[in-house]
Write a structure and sequence with these properties.
It is a single chain. This protein is mostly helical. Helices cover 70% and strands 5% of the residues. It folds into 2 domains: 125 residues, no CATH class; 27 residues. Strand 1 and strand 2 form a beta hairpin. Helix 2 packs across helix 6.
Length: 164
Amino acid sequence: MKVDELIKFAKGKKDYDFSQRIKLRYMPYAEKCVLVKNAVEVTSYITVNGKKLYKRNTAGMLFYFTMKMIEYYTDLEYEKDNVVIVYDALMESGLMEKLMQEIPESEIKILRGMLDMERDDIEANTRTLVSYIETKSDAFEMAFDKLSEALMSPEIQAKIAKKD
């Protein structure tokens, strides 16, 4: 069913059974992982001067997460080009809350937890001093190796020997 049709249809009905719009009660773990990785990728990175940078965007993630829950767990159809309009229409009509209440709470909790863990992992792996040093250590090691090689060259050794 299209979102705009549901909004019109359910508008005057207080006893509408929103559970009939739910097509999925459990998402397999592998699919959850893909959803979470995509959510973080789409909402947490920007490109500056051709370089991909991590920038946490909690509001963007909430929006993306909410619409993906509607997409995956319900039978509702909407144009992806108008996703913000669809979100606003569902929120304004009060249907978003009713739909989200029909999605199993355990599924929502697991996915939110996975989102938090994914972001925490990225931040720990890319934004800490330890991760910076680990990333740069190969470059430092290569530079020191080149310096050591240069210092051990016969020409440099001869110059060192002359100074003694």
